[in-house]
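pasting input
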Amino acid sequence: MATKKIMYINRVTPHSGLTAKESLDVVLIGAAFEQDVALAFIDDGVYQLLKDQQPEKTGSRHVAKSFAALGDYDVRKIYVEQESLDERGLSEADLVDLRHENPEDDYRDTASIRLISREKLARLFGRQDVLFNF
Amino acid sequence: MAILHTINQSPDTGNQLLACVSRALPDSAIILYEDGVYAALDKIAARPNIELQKLDCKLYAVRDDCEARGLQQAALSKMVKLIDYPEFVELVTQYDVVQAWS
Amino acid sequence: MLEVNGRVYPTDEEGYLENISDWSEAIAEAMAAADDIKLSEAHWDILRFLREYYHEYEIAPAVRVLTKAVGRRLGKDKGNSKYLYNLFPDGPGKQACRYAGLPKPTGCV
């Protein structure tokens, strides 16, 4: 099976219905096929990465917690759109610290989240083979 | 007839809040709950099309819903008072009618 | 469903516990006994590891991920397929997650 560049675009809040949880499951299953996987968080999707979420207060699943396992699934590229953070008064310091072992740098522990401008991310969409929207 | 408006959707997901703020009267109150609490973020509350600070009415957000979503109190608008669900119920009984935007 | 010490626990059609909070060591032992496996300390290391992993990430790891994560946390001598398949011949992802009371692994193919 040829490797495809797959990007999952997350645009919804973490605790409304099942979408955020479903998208994570799809990402993890896709990662098992060893594709070139990237995640992008834009618009309300950036709320999924806020640290210190306490979903047990309202009985929801802890999606941000599961994101921490993405490194184990070799998902190393997590793009967060800068403008989406700015529009919500958020910064990188408000986000969970996701990490992976970088095979191109002697498996050094490396941050997975990369902030990217709206324009650059829009161009990056065009360099993927498949875009999935959640 | 004092109206209690309730909002449970992020202002970037739908237009509940826009529909509500243009109709809120001085004796109205607005409760943000579930995903509605994202509008309590200072930066969002101050957006030109929302401007919660210009409303005369009372504004509430449910504390558990803020904490569930990782919203820090320091990041929230000073206009918004945090309440728990029993207080939500109490408010429902105090107003003549509830407009639950959907 | 599964009966252990006179109590009945709901499971899905593949034998995974419906409620992770139902789990006990007795349940793991009963599941293993049904597969003719007597749980050793080496098995328990993996089961405890899986329960901690699930507690931390809310994910039942696929076999590839389990192998890598075990290697990192319990050492390379345990983080390899041969060692794990010896302990759990039906597949370390599926079988060990089931004994540990976790759901079926996400991304196990």
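fyi The mean pLDDT of chain A is 89.
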